[in-house]
Amino acid sequence: MHHVVVERWSRGSGPLHALDARAKLGALLAFLVAVSTTPARSQIAFGAYAALMVAAMGASRLPLGGLLRRAALVLPFSTTFALITWWSGDPLRALALAEKSLLSGLAALLLIATTPLTAVLAGFETTGAPRAVILAIQFLYRYLFVISEQAQHMRLAARSRHGGSSARALLFSASAGALGVLFARSWERADGIYQAMLARGFSGRFAVSVHPHFHAADLMFFSAVLATCTGIRLAA
């Protein structure tokens, strides 16, 4: 199913895949801080951030089109606020808002597309992240797949019942009710999954099966990204 594409990508063998999750988490944090604090007037800096992302996508050996399509999913949300900002008389800030959203979304996508969830969570745990945060990430990630799969089943059922392009208006008018049904069914299934986990001995903590090791290449990667982002930010 297409909703597990990113999970399949994370099992690849590109140069970014081989790096320690902690190095990539640190690099992501440095990038997000630099992008979010860059003034809207510094369009050259945003171009440099974009070039850095292009280099990272090349190193990931993942399909460029697939990455961009998935990263663009953040744009409908940020575009709303960007349009409001544009209408208020600040077009440069509106453009910067869209750029920051796309760059941040792409950076976060690259992390999860080149790092299995188990490695990400092991990296969080070894850096001393709160147990509640790690547990929330684990459940959120897993239940997103539950919602996605349930949505695909409902979509297939709707097409089977109505079919054809002539039924698009009917399907659109019923979308609000379908959304409520989607979350109700997803909650019911997620609760069943949780009860099954409890029956199998789940005690509120997932066992970590990955024990990461930080190597010289990981330190070089993190240092290079940190120095590049700092240099771009200071020059902005």
Task: Give a written overview of the molecule.
The protein has two domains: 2-116 and 211-235, no CATH class; 131-199, no CATH class. 75% of the residues lie in helices and 0% in strands. The model has no long low-confidence stretch (mean pLDDT 81). It starts with a helix and ends with a helix. α2 runs antiparallel to α6, α3 (43-60) packs parallel to α6 (91-114) and α7 (117-126) runs antiparallel to α8 (131-162). It has eleven helices and no strands. The chain has 236 residues and is mainly alpha-helical.
Note the main attributes of this structure:
11 helices; 2 domains
Outline the low-pLDDT stretches.
none
Helical region count?
11
What is the first-to-last residue Cα distance? 43 Å
Series of H and E elements: HHHHHHHHHHH
Q: How would the global form be characterised?
A: globular
Which sheet architecture does the biggest sheet show?
Answer: none
Which structural category do the helix and sheet elements fall into?
Answer: mainly alpha
Domain count, please report it: 2
Helix content: over 70%
Overall pLDDT score: 81
Round the Cα radius of gyration to an integer and report it: 21 Å
Using DSSP, what is the number of strands? 0
- Taken as a percent bin, the fraction of beta residues is under 5%
Provide a concise account of the structure shown.
The chain has 236 residues and is mainly alpha-helical. It has 11 helices and no strands.
